[in-house]
Amino acid sequence: MAVLDSKSPKGPIANRWTKHKNDINVVNPANKRLIDVIVVGTGLAGGAASASLAEMGYNVKAFCYQDSPRRAHSIAAQGGINAAKNYQNDGDSTYRLFYDTVKGGDYRARESNVYRLAEVSTNIIDQCVAQGVPFARDYGGLLDNRSFGGVLVSRTFYAKGQTGQQLLLGAYSAMNRQINKGKIQMFNRHEMMDLVKVDGKARGIITRNLHTGEISRHSAHAVVIATGGYGNVYFLSTNAMGSNVTAAWKIHKKGAFFANPCYTQIHPTCIPRSGDHQSKLTLMSESLRNDGRIWVPGRKDHVEAIRSGKMKPVEIPEEDRDYYLERRYPAFGNLVPRDVASRAAKERCDAGYGVNSTGEAVYLDYSSAIERYGKTEANINGLDSSDTELVTKLGKKVIEAKYGNLFQMYEKITDENPYETPMMIYPAVHYTMGGIWVDYNLMTTIEGCYAAGEANFSDHGANRLGASALMQGLADGYFVLPYTIGDFLAAEIRTGEIPNDTPEFLEAENDVRKQIDFFVNNKGTKSVDHFHKRLGKVMWDKVGMSRNITGLEEAIREIKEIREEFWREVKVPGDADGLNPELEKAGRVADFLELGELFAKDALHRNESCGGHFREESVEVGGPQDGEALREDVNFRYVAAWEYKGEPSDAVLHKEPLEFNDIELKQRSYK
Ligand SMILES: Cc1cc2nc3c(=O)[nH]c(=O)nc-3n(C[C@H](O)[C@H](O)[C@H](O)COP(=O)(O)OP(=O)(O)OC[C@H]3O[C@@H](n4cnc5c(N)ncnc54)[C@H](O)[C@@H]3O)c2cc1C
């Protein structure tokens, strides 16, 4: 195959997906019974893919490391899922969702894929409603929507603050139907340790049973990787503790190109770090920015008074508050995209206006919303809207109905009541737009190996809009992969069962055993977490929200040093033949230590600011956009896909040029 053939269909963009489906090969229903597909990961992307492929007749072997698909990281998604249904009659359309996604991603995504995503978004909602997903409804009983950052319409479907959980229960019930029928063989608590290739094609995986330590070989005609994102390379993130890059990294080492590793999303509304001994960060859903106003004190003496406990935020007069997003971005205000909101918070905190003891926190304030909603409620019920106490009480009830579980979560973690005092928030690592490079069929550069959901480099370019990850994962799993995989599998109907005792399988198994033996026998002096934390600190300080050439070069050097020390000094207690969480972590951190270097290398080569990737050397000077990120379309309008060549430093860059025929390339302005 030509290197990086995206297989994007030609012709009018609105017809491409339909035309493509008409043109590609399909497998007839009787022949699907002859074909096995491995799906690694049963979050929203993998769960949807497993259920759909089995429903179509393929034999699916599904793997996850949790004790049930219900516990995938997808369960954490709070805010919602986008779809261009235009239920609010506010002018939404497939084109507008496509446009917002390409613009939001700072023109670094593939047009054909994004259009398809917008097109199938509406089917996702119908599918999930049919499964019984309890989306929020408005007073008339119709599905409700809210707005999310970076767009001017309300298109986000939600189930209180538990959208991911409800969607996952839907996908899981669809899977369960097939598990029951024997069409899905479910391997819970199995971690994929390596990919097996036979004659250049992905033909199986090696797994470790996390309870017994048993290593086993599994074969299939195709392998789908739906193992989520790699935000935990930063150690601290909002991702689930187990989220990792291992499956994606193993296929990278076997020939799958890794695209745009430096595109990371730092989410603006997370609970700030409280100190050095934390292992997890908590997201406060972006939906909170719909009604909350973000500010810091405008005066340094007020900042000092707050930090020393002499003043409370509610005592700061209105005229001394700096609602910096509303000030800098009047058109979008608090609803600017995540990358813009995160950098603006950092800018204020770096300037000395952070409101907690670490200096890394800003306020998210509900008092205006409480008053606004309270007055409306009073008017609706014919009550006195000038009665402040009554209005506040009514307003709090509305806020509780909309965000109650999020407020409760905040209070449990911080011991502060957000109905009475503004929340404190700060940006944290949340999502990775980079990932395994895939073509229009979601096939990686390894034949027969596919990637779906957050694991692929996805449709979000350099920055993902809120509520679009669930949309993409479910689009991939329910509506894209089940069609496109047939194009490859149509040629496999006569292949027969793939044996799992061939030299390729035995060699891969042997390599896995060797690594495990090494870890349990190394008897070093430092824990796995010791290395992971050091890696995370380098990543956050030098490859975080803001990046520059000096920091990136240092990061590359330092990560390499940490990696070398890891292989000398890592200590993994316990043994290999049973439950051993330290052993699990060791394998994952080993992969993060390689990915981290490639990540920094990618960030170094991309000497432009785009989306979540902010290079200090590339900013607008003068004019209305002064100080904002400066994208460099002439030199960097491409997907950077890295080929593994041994060490991360030897990785070879391949470029997939990005063409924009249906959207005009513009400076992304939210002012
Ligand atoms: C706190 C939080 C809130 C969010 N809120 C929203 C939101 O409101 N809207 C939105 O659109 N997006 C949201 N996101 C993003 C979204 O939740 C994720 O991008 C999405 O759920 C990822 O789904 P996935 O199926 O690709 O991967 P995951 O849900 O991460 O699933 C990964 C699967 O892979 C398995 N796995 C991983 N490695 C291995 C291995 N080596 N072997 C075997 N199995 C493996 C896991 O067991 C799991 O089953 C949020 C993210 C976070 C962190």
Description:
- This protein is an alpha+beta fold and 671 residues long.
- Helices cover 39% and strands 14% of the residues.
- The chain has 18 helices and 19 strands.
- The chain has helices at residues 16-23, 29-32, 44-56, 94-104, 111-131, 163-181, 246-253, 300-307, 324-328, 338-353, 367-380, 388-414, 469-489, 503-521, 528-542, 549-569, 581-605, 633-636, and strands spanning 36-40, 59-63, 81-82, 156-157, 184-187, 190-198, 201-209, 215-219, 222-225, 258-259, 264-270, 293-297, 321-322, 362-365, 423-432, 435-436, 449-451, 638-643, 652-657.
- The strands form five sheets. Strands 5-2-1-9-17 form a five-stranded parallel beta sheet.
- Helix 3 (44-56) runs parallel beside helix 6 (163-181), helix 3 (44-56) runs parallel beside helix 13 and helix 11 packs across helix 12 (388-414).
- The mean pLDDT is 96.
- The structure holds flavin-adenine dinucleotide (FAD).
- Flavin-adenine dinucleotide binds at residues 40-46, 63-66, 72-74, 76-81, 163-164, 191-192, 226-229, 238-239, 243-244, 246-247, 283, 430-431, 453-455, 467-470, 473.
